[in-house]
# Entry
Amino acid sequence: MTSKFFNLENSYLSLSNQFYAHSAPTPASQPKLLAWNEALAKDFGLLQSNFSDKEKALYFTGSDIIPGSTPVSLAYAGHQFGRFVATLGDGRAHLLGDFISPDGKRYDIQLKGSGITPFSRNGDGKSALGPVLREYLVSEAMHAMGIPTTRALAAASTGEFVFRDTPKPGAVFTRVAPSHIRVGTFEYFAARGDTDSLQKLLLFAAARHFPELPANPTLPLAFLQAVVRQQADLIAQWMSVGFIHGVMNTDNTAVGGFTIDFGPCAFMDEYNSNKVFSFIDKQGRYAYSRQPLMAQWNLARLAQALLCLSQENTNEVATLCEQEVQKFSELYEAAWLKRMAAKIGIMSPISEDAALIKQWLSFVENGSLDFTLSFRVLANMLFSNNTTDGAAIAETAATIGTLETSGAGNKNDSHDLCYSLPQNNGWHDFRQKWYHRVLKQNLPLAAIAEKMNSVNPLYIPRNHILEAVISEATEGNFSLFQTMQEILLTPYNEKPQYLKFSQAPTPQQRVLNTFCGT
Ligand code: AMP
Ligand code: MG
# Structure
């Protein structure tokens, strides 16, 4: 059955009922639309008729069910901080259905915070307003930076309070995702020894995400290989923008290679490779620098689950699976080199460039410089020297020298980093090598700088700004939320009127911890 609104189907219903539980969202007492992503709706061909904000509020709090939708909550397991939990599932989410977008791909629409489900365990099935606005802004910012992610379609308040440390306004988040299949979905069936369901899941997930793979006995390995490749690129992209997911559990790892489940995630301000924001990540399991390792660990869990499908040659198949997981390191290194080299102005990197990137990063880290802005400053140094003439090196070096002495560079000044880099041995040594490497490309320096600025965001959803957005919204004022939506749409473009949103936090503004908020 299709709806006039979305042509909504629910392909999960073609799977057996071990995969999901029928579950109706809890109607909200006073549904109110807070945000509607019109551009996304248009891109995905979701709006076929005009609907009022009131109708959208009803649909996107789950108070009215979109015609054609059969809401379900999906089953999955997961390794949470390394510990296996055999039954998790959507404890506060309802999958309304899926649709085919104009690009020919199928996407899910899911409500999050829409009430108790059969998987709620001790939870209330609700979301507070803060995490809803945070996921809205961060997921759209990721998309604007070209990083694969679930998307924000709507946010709506319920008019009710949810009880966390204090009562908070309740809200529902609507996301659009290429699927909601997680590594933990595979683990769910593997843990139960339900190989029939596991095989069905594999066929379903492969058809959704990798339709080019032939559905023959090589599928488990080919699927693993495809997931490994996408994860390697995804994590390299996270690293390149200083993104810390915070809860990289296997239930928060989508097999479709996109970012999912924005809980205590954060973008780093000052660069610290061991940075952890999440209050619950006491051991630093998901610290910034550990994300590639943890992604690989999660992929090993997927491999283990897929191994349950093989009856013969188990040792041989196990070795093949292990090899696929091991390939992550090499794929990740290559993806990281490509992304990070572009950030420092190297268009076609060779493996030796990794050392230069690492040197730059250690300079940034040792000076506790702002991760995001440091790359913009680097590009700025090339703008005024639009030449490939080797003789201009000295002149450029002199210009860099002036920029260096303009005063910033210690921790307390890092919010001023728009303007300068600290002058010290680390900088001089790096600058020399970097400048020669960049010049070797025989491109005008301004063109290189422009390319750098097209991959180095100026605006990211900084923690201290998100906190201000949430605290104002909790008081009923959504103007900062709207401003941030607008700014984050074009993260690379300078916006003089919004300069302060690009700046690093002052020591007083700095956010030390983030919370799941569930
Ligand atoms: P998350 O930390 O959001 O990835 O969630 C981990 C697990 O806890 C998932 O199974 C969620 O569905 C469940 N969960 C999180 N918050 C709630 C809540 N408020 N009520 C019920 N279940 C929840
Ligand atoms: Mg989750």
Notes: Residues 144 and 489 are 6 Å apart (CA to CA). The pocket of adenosine monophosphate (ligand 1) is lined by residues 88-92, 119-120, 123-126, 247, 251-252, 261, 263, 516, 518 (CB under 6 Å). The longest helix spans residues 314-343. The chain has three domains: 11-179, 184-341, 370-453.
